[in-house]
Design goal:
2 helices; 6 strands; alpha+beta; 60s Ribosomal Protein L30, Chain: A; single chain
Length: 125
């Protein structure tokens, strides 16, 4: 259940909610930071390919637990450069469709300079 108070706090934009209440969840899945790497561990060439690989990898990880992106209740994105924010938000919106969840994007140095974005997720089911 989304919670987006309109008084006493700044407004949420159209691509996220301030909070999401999960009631009676039987399971929680905490997904490690996931990079834009192909199955051989090679990073995608460029931001767009890495974002596509990240979301593909997240879908595979969720499926291994019998979940889908519809189970995601929280995302944190780690961006090497703030200019990646818009592309990251666009990829997130495409992956989640009309669902809006709490998100955070942080500019950080990733462990490997070829990793442009890393995303961690929490899913509930």
């Amino acid at each position: 259940m989304p919670h987006n108070p309109t008084e006493g706090v700044y407004p949420a934009t159209d691509d996220y909610v301030h909070a999401l209440e999960v009631r009676d969840a039987g399971r929680l899945l905490f997904v490690s930071g996931t990079m834009g790497l192909d199955p051989a561990g090679k990073p995608g060439t460029g931001l767009q390919e890495q974002l596509e690989l990240i979301w593909s990898n997240i879908r595979v990880i969720l499926a291994s637990a019998g979940m889908t992106v519809d189970n995601i209740v929280r995302l944190t994105s780690y961006l090497r450069d703030p200019v990646y924010a818009e592309a990251n938000a666009t990829a997130r919106a495409a992956a989640l469709g009309a669902r809006r969840i709490p998100t955070t994007a942080i500019v950080a140095t990733t462990l490997d300079s070829d990793w442009l974005v890393e995303i961690e997720a929490i899913a509930a089911g």
